[in-house]
Specification:
about 300 residues; alpha+beta; Sulfite Oxidase, Chain A, domain 2; 7-stranded mixed beta sheet; 5-stranded mixed beta sheet; 9 helices; 12 strands; globular; binds ligand MTE
Length: about 300
């Protein structure tokens, strides 16, 4: 499998940012470049450790315990891997992973990640904008949503042998959400290929939505005119909606969403207030202007 995640900082800095910074630095002889300055889409909060990010997971295909994905995901074959892209697109087909990964420049993005279970992490992803993929395959004018599906392979995914969810795991985004520059097809983290428990070889990351929208191990992408099914809404319509935007004012029927536990830090593991759209409101709130987010939850 190609390993485009093995990148140096200069490789993952968008070119215009890189050039810009060099221009600025040219006028400030003697100063040393601080990469943090260039990370337009990244938070400056400290990332969780690789260990934390890869041992506390939700990937129900491998079991319900947070440690199950790290324990059992090793049996999932991820090479070869192809994604079936279809529906309302100009160039439908089965695309090899290497071709998908070449659809947009791979960048590093350090994102806050907020699970609906009221815990959070900070994760340095590698990936490319989903918008680049959608542009490459060509969106037809009638396309309004994007539907995603995870691999269905019960021989390698023990959780799929029981009916805890209606497999395969499915998710969906409205087209404007899918085209938003924050929305990533993530192919790695901490500069390494995506660990299997985190959704190898390629998964979605939508940082202003609850983590369950960030579907793992994607094998199918379909553009549709109608709002597609998403697994958690399908399993419990009262508790989970389609939008699933992080919102401290809209509680889950069984627990509050007002605060969250930041994973890690041991004794200092901290509770913090949850922020609307997980802190990405400046960038995404306008997409929901005029919508009642207590109804479209
Ligand atoms: N994708 C699939 N296929 N199966 C899952 O069970 N769990 C979701 C999401 N994507 C899940 C999934 C949930 S609830 C969360 S919080 C995130 O994956 C967890 O991602 P992480 O383990 O990389 O932190």
């Amino acid at each position: 499998m190609s390993s485009r995640n093995d990148l140096k900082w200069s490789d993952v800095t968008p070119e215009h940012v890189w050039l810009n910074r060099r221009a600025v630095l040219g006028g400030m002889a003697g100063l040393i470049a601080t990469p943090a300055l260039a990370r337009g889409y990244s938070t400056d909060e400290a990332p969780n450790t690789f260990e934390e990010i890869t041992t506390y997971n939700n990937f129900y295909e491998f079991g319900l315990d947070k440690g199950d994905p790290a324990r059992y995901a090793g049996q999932m074959t991820t090479d070869p891997w192809a994604i079936e892209i279809g529906g309302l697109v100009d160039r439908p087909g089965s695309y090899d992973l290497a071709d998908v990964m070449a659809m947009g420049p791979i960048e590093e993005r350090i994102y806050r990640f907020r699970c609906v279970e009221a815990w959070s992490m900070v994760i340095p992803w590698n990936g490319f904008q989903l918008s680049h993929l959608l542009e490459k395959v060509g969106m037809q004018p009638s396309a309004r949503y994007v539907a995603f599906e995870t691999l269905l392979r019960p021989e390698e995914m023990p959780g799929q042998r029981s009916r805890i969810l209606d497999w395969p795991y499915r998710e969906g985004l409205r087209l404007d959400e899918a085209m938003h520059p924050l929305t990533l097809m993530a192919t790695g983290l901490y500069g390494r290929d995506m660990p299997k428990q985190n959704g190898a070889p390629i998964r979605l990351v939508v940082p202003w939505k609850y983590g369950f929208k960030s579907i793992k191990s994607i094998v199918k992408i379909t553009l549709t005119a109608d709002q597609p099914l998403n697994t958690w809404k399908q399993s419990n319509t009262r508790e989970y909606g389609f939008y699933s935007n992080v919102n401290p004012q809209v509680n889950h029927p069984r627990w509050s969403q007002a605060s969250e536990r930041r994973i890690g830090g041991g004794f200092f593991s901290s509770r913090q207030d949850t922020v609307i759209f997980n802190g990405y409101g400046d960038q995404v709130a306008q997409m929901y202007a005029g919508q009642d987010l207590t109804k479209d939850f």
